[in-house]
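dumping this here before i forget
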Amino acid sequence: MAKMTDLEELVSKIRNPLIKDYMKEAMSCYFSGAYRGCIVMSYISLFDDLMEKLGAIKDVNADAKSIFAEVEKRKREQDVFENYLLEQLASKSLISELDSTTINLIRERRNKSAHPSGHHPSAEEARYIFFEVVDKFLSKDVLGTKHIVDELLLRLSNKNLFVSTTITDTKTVVQHEIEKIHPEAYPYLVINVFNEFKNSEDVVRKNASFFLDGLAALDIEELNSNIVSRVIEKSLDDDSLNSKCLCLISSNPKLLPLITGVHKSRYDAIMNNVIEEMHFGQVSTGLSHPSVIIRRIIDSLGITWVKESYPNYLEAMVQKLPLRKGVIELAAQDDELKSALVNKVCEIAGSYSFDTANNFIDRFNDVEETFTGIVTGGDCLRLVHKITDAASNGAWRSEEVVASKFETFALLRSRVLSHLEDHPEDSLEYLKDKINDSITINRFKSRYLKTEEQPA
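structure:
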């Protein structure tokens, strides 16, 4: 005979609290030797559960709605409905063939037990039926939901399915659309949405693409594994699908550690290529853009993980986007990265290319406060010197800044003046090395940083 703890553990898996309470009584029947009562109560619970789950999907499935209405009508008229319900659920694929066979077996055993047929149910029979009812049905959230997926696939042609292009809104829509889909149907969902993306055009393809991104953004373990194995790993060697793979990883960077072996090598090659092709200062809000992917990976997995796993990502951000506020704030988290950022900023500030040097002046206005807030006074002095170099080389925007005694960049000037005051020896050594041996701190201030109207 089964132990009470075994059946109690089984009952604890029942989702519906009312049915759970009812099945506790069925369990009591079993342990008191009333096996007939255990079987009958398990059978009643099974069909109550089927009706509840049918009602949960009737608003999204026409077949479920029709079956539910007919069963409710028969119940009101006190007519037999079990056979009809079972036949309809099976014929409309709302339950699997295996589940249908199991229910038929339970129904046969119940009929023998509930009527004076001379059948005397055994403990093993009662325990088997109790177990099957709970394990196969009462412990499940919903009926098989492939039909919900099928109806969802049809709606991918609706132009208003997604009303926004942001990943946050996309995630919200997808979360709503799959709330009645059981995790057991996730593989079917992922495979078929991916097929729609590959094989369709226009609205359907766009919606399928958004839907895949939304599924990834949900960060559900069962979905993550299916997206990696059924979409990403099957697409990384296909140039036409590379961008979709990057979008999915950008939507949920936690997918990245799940990509291993040859698939990781393919991903690395793709990502390295798009990073190399990214132009200096190029930004985008698109999920597949390397700057967006890297930023989202850092936000999700942390700078330490990225530094250990993909250090080239951090280098790319500094080398390609040094004058972005987010990159400067990122560099503040790591001394090596900050040093690389300062070197890059000084390099472009003192560039011999007029366009590069002039563009720096225009862009630095936007990040002056952020940059001067994370670097040292010595770094600021170095940057001022680089700007004066560019001015000497003829960069007209740099010349304007120098002519104004850095009034354009008041915060930068203030940091440098403070550094000259607080660290005169180090400052003078730097200036002599970069300008000439006859330079003094006062001469440097007078030439580049102070006007007569400015306070000492």
